[in-house]
Amino acid sequence: MEPVEKRILKDGSNLGNGILKVDGFINHQVDPGLMDVCGQELAARFADIGATKVLTAEISGIAPALMTARYLGLSVVYARKSKPITMPDQVFLTLAPSHTKGRMVELIISPEYLSGGEKVLIIDDFLASGATILGLVRLAQTAGATIVGIGTLIEKEFEGGRQALAHLNIPVESLARITSMEGDEIRFY
Amino acid sequence: MEPVEKRILKDGSNLGNGILKVDGFINHQVDPGLMDVCGQELAARFADIGATKVLTAEISGIAPALMTARYLGLSVVYARKSKPITMPDQVFLTLAPSHTKGRMVELIISPEYLSGGEKVLIIDDFLASGATILGLVRLAQTAGATIVGIGTLIEKEFEGGRQALAHLNIPVESLARITSMEGDEIRFY
Fold this sequence. Notes:
The structure is a homodimer.
Chain A: H1 3-11, E1 13-16, E2 19-21, E3 29-30, H2 32-45, E4 53-57, H3 62-72, E5 76-79, E6 92-98, E7 103-109, E8 119-127, H4 131-142, E9 146-156, H5 161-165, E10 172-180, E11 187-188
Parallel strand pairs in A: 4-5, 4-8, 8-9, 9-10
Antiparallel strand pairs in A: 1-2, 6-7, 10-11
Helix pairs in contact in A: 2-3
């Protein structure tokens, strides 16, 4: 069993309606040792795809993306959800629905850090419906970059993200693949 | 010269009005190798203060705090700026002015992950006026925790943060201490 799966069973909570609480080790309190192990594993799975940059979305994608990028020796870019004053006026911007916020959020990348010819590995904490990741895909494609892989810590297979990404025809890897969250139970692939 | 200082001179930009653009290696695109070196250095400087938890604020504090916590073998908690649905109704909340957003933002921590008796090391990307860090201090103190140290990557000494934190009487460490940003120049301590 993968370390993330074990940790979900130990410290995660099934809040019902497909909501998985993992804020004790991923997205409020973070366990750096676990992130390190996950980064190493994702880097190993994507070692041969020729990625030149790791892309994620703030906020909770940052920790796994940073650790993966560290093992691959690449820079990581995180799409911002609001435009800081240090960013140029001309940016790549798309909208994506936020699962945890219940509204649309902006995803913004400066053209300074994503350009044509880059081969992009997308890393995020969750693959659920795939909407956030598809937002990152649109941004990268607008920049003229190619997506070469998608990796996440936790996939909720029953939300259909894998199917939504299938047309990209690239490897999609998740360290914990949850097939169902009926009742109190959490079942893995 | 510290690695962060070198990198600021190489890839940072002085945008005027005290605004330092470091989004090529810290707060939009991140260099994991640099963050690793910084985390190791901050961990070494705070090795003997008995910290039990690292605390930071989303978004750009996450990378340096994660790397520092990894070297100290501690968990890191990042204060959220909006309350996710996975968080309990009762939270610790304070307001702090955001330098880059030009408005007040909320800083929120779940009582699940910060409790009385914790010895907290605060790590952030910037020490400017100290307002965000003082917000984190208030949250930790409300939780009954003790602040034992404050570390940042970059300090803008001319904005007075170090003085604003002096009453805490704890070690404050910054890897790059900028004393002035007159004209195009960036001067270090």
